[in-house]
Amino acid sequence: MGVRAARAGGGPPIYADRILSAVHNLTSTAGIVALAAGACALLALLFCAVLGLKLRRVRAAQRMVLGDGEQDLVAHAASIQQQFEALYGYVQDAAERLDNRMELAERRLDRAVAYRALIRYDAYGEMSGRQSTSIALLDANRSGLILSSIHHRDQARLYAKEVLEGKPELELSPEEDEAIRRAFEADGRQQSS
């Protein structure tokens, strides 16, 4: 429909008069519908503006997580999963290496001196001031050696006897037996303390 010609006095066209009179009359059905439509449009525009701001914040947060690349969220999650699996594999490998090193260190420590005792005595009863000694040096498996140094006025002799799992290879003197007993007793006292 075209706009009708203007009135003879230069006022608005007749067709526009009819529309404006209907809109100006807000109590009519057309006026109420126009107001409701305008209010809905205004609310929709406000809602779109709020959603636009929220979307801008979400995209900024997404850029912060994803970086400036062209990667989407699913690809980024898959990449993180791959990196996590690689890290998990590395940690498992490192833990296995550490377990192996710990086992080796424990085996080496088991062979270190764990029990020791020193006994001083006068081997010949000469009142020489208890210059003779027997020392027990044993590992965690109760293996090691007994060293006995027997001092006399003119000479000194050194004897070494091997012990395997608490059993000597040769018969021990009473002082050497005492050294082994004290070595194991000293460990028992330390563990109970």
Helices and strands, in order, run as: HHHEEEEEH
Shape summary: rod-shaped
Q: What structural category arises from helix and sheet content?
A: alpha+beta
Our measurement of the CA-to-CA distance between the termini, rounded to an integer number of angstroms, reads 109 Å
Number of DSSP strands? Answer: 5
- Biggest sheet: strands, sense, closure? 5 strands, antiparallel
Could you say how many structural domains there are in total?
3
Q: Determine the number of helices (DSSP H or I, runs of at least 4 residues).
A: 4
Strand content: 15-25%
Helix content: 40-55%
Radius of gyration: 50 Å
Poorly predicted spans: none
Average pLDDT taken over every residue:
82
Q: Give the spatial strand order of the biggest sheet.
A: 1-2-3-4-5
Plain-language structure description:
The chain has 193 residues and is an alpha+beta fold. It folds into 3 domains: 13-69; 71-108; 115-192, no CATH class. The protein is 55% helix and 17% strand. It has 4 helices and 5 strands, in the order αααβββββα. It has a 5-stranded antiparallel beta sheet, covered by helices on one side. Strand 2 (132-138) and strand 3 (144-151) form a beta hairpin. The chain is rod-shaped. The chain starts with 13 loop residues before the first helix and ends with a helix. The mean pLDDT is 82.
